[in-house]
Amino acid sequence: MQLETENLQEIVDLSEEEMLENISTFVDASGLAFGVFRVILSDDGKEVLDSKYKYVNQKYCDWAHKPKEFFATQTFRSFFGENLSKKWFTQAYEAAILQKTISDKLYDPVCNSYCNYIISPVKKYFGYFVYAFFDVDSQAKEIIALEKKNKTATLLLNISKALSGPASHESAIQYTLECLAPVFMAERLFLYEIHENKIDSEVEVCKIGVESNKGLLVGKHHDQNIHEWNSIPVNKYGYFEIDVDSLKDKFGISPYDLKKLDIKTCFGMPLKDNSGKVIAYLGADNYQLNDEYDLNDLFPTLSYYLTSKFIIHNSIVYLHNLSHLDSLTGIYNRIGYLENAAHYMKTHDDEPSVGIVLDIDDFKFVNDLYGHNVGDKTLQQLANNIAKFFNKKACYGRTGGDEFCVLLQNTTIEESKPLIEQFSNMDQSFFYNGKRYSFTISMGYAQYPEDGKTLQSLNSAADSALYDAKLKGKNNCVRYTKNSNDNLRSRLGFAFKDIANNLPTAILIYSCQRPGKILYANDYIISLFECDDLEDFLKFSSGEMANLIYEEDREFILSQIEQQVGYDPMSKIGRIVFRAMTKKGKIIRVLKIGRRVTSPYYGDLFYSALSEYYEDTH
């Protein structure tokens, strides 16, 4: 857009005439400070980028403490710096281009006081305007200061109500940023939270036409990504303001990433808990603080409100997690799973879903053989496998001991069967202290609403299918059917210890590797070898099968057992008679019937039944 050729003297005369006409109702114009400006427009002519000084009177020079010659090469930006209110450029456009007259007031940093001003068009010359100002009297200053405080107090009251009200945490933070938008007048205003040193969530408000950067840092480590910003000191009001170009020289921070995003100025307010740890961050990009607010009152109070909100919210989240998450695996516990799965089924009652109940095969043996540390690692590994495999397709939790439940959402049993079978067959192993450990799982599954119309009945059906899988050899998955035996649990209710100790024979399980470490013995074997109790028996035998065989026969009998049974798991059951000496020195003949098996936990084992052998039993 082209501006008209100037006749400077005529412009000055017209400007003064225009100015006097507009401000005569406000103040005596004699000795008034004023200047004439020509706007510098953007390429499309829709906004004022700057204004060039064309004339200033002596009063203006006295106010600025500069000679007239100084202003011949100046623009408004070069004289006042970059911290000009965007409002001023909007008003310059309205006066010079739209031919409007504007009256307003602002804080004058040169005089450290408030001023009233008039911006008037030079009607004959398009693109020119006159700017005149005068000091506000003391009473007016008090009124303006009071207006700022009231405006700030109203803003803080609205924010306080939102942060302490019934709205969700994210909604309250979003509303707070929307309230703060007029204060910052920023291209982007944002606030992110930090949990366990990770940027957990982010809320932002962007100026129309500005691309969102939301989520750019979410999930990343705070210390690894923006820890350098913690080196920037804040002022006594708890925030800092930085020109991006000065980051490298002042703080050693590379401005490269910010410049890529076309960020020129930054505002930052770290929010810290009572220990001094940063728990959230309020920031603004390419902003201009609005002097219509009392910023010295606003920011300390705002920091207190937001910090209190986050501390309370984090405490609520912690207590909720404490009651809903399993502390060992990090996934839902029984309460958390039942609550979330039931909520899903209630809000999606018209959608099919599949319930799965699974557990670790022979988990007690894992704890007994390898210790509870490995047992805990086994549970953690299974939980991780469930979380990674099913991801967002399901709700899942550890519902007790080694039992886990999964609810596959919006799927039928036919659609999910391949997925369940794939998980059932996948490798379940992990390394701990340099050693690899493997385990297997059994799974039962059922469909909503056909097999159960509530979460409880669906889990019950899947549980019946699980025990069907146990009876079919474990390490598999079984679908619930109407023929599934609801009494399977009672059939498995006989504890192995009760069964073993009431059999009319001694049971001995020991390692195939010599000297045959004893892993299990029932009560009958204690009486067979005339011991007081299991501890006494293990002390007598030193916990080894070889020591039960009469010493003179030991090598021969062990070789015979190995040759007879062999190393084929499908070999026939071996039968042998050997001499043994009891704890009391009695020599007896023992009939041993055994078979070699391979256990995923113990390796190669002999399962054996022992009884005293008499010749007349032939």
Automatic annotation (TrEMBL):
It comes from the Bacteria. Its EC number is 2.7.7.65. GO terms for cellular component: plasma membrane. This is diguanylate cyclase. PROSITE patterns: GGDEF. SUPFAM superfamilies: Nucleotide cyclase, PYP-like sensor domain (PAS domain). GO terms for biological process: cell adhesion involved in single-species biofilm formation; negative regulation of bacterial-type flagellum-dependent cell motility. It catalyses: 2 GTP = 3',3'-c-di-GMP + 2 diphosphate. Residues 351-482 form the GGDEF domain. One of its GO terms (molecular function) is diguanylate cyclase activity.
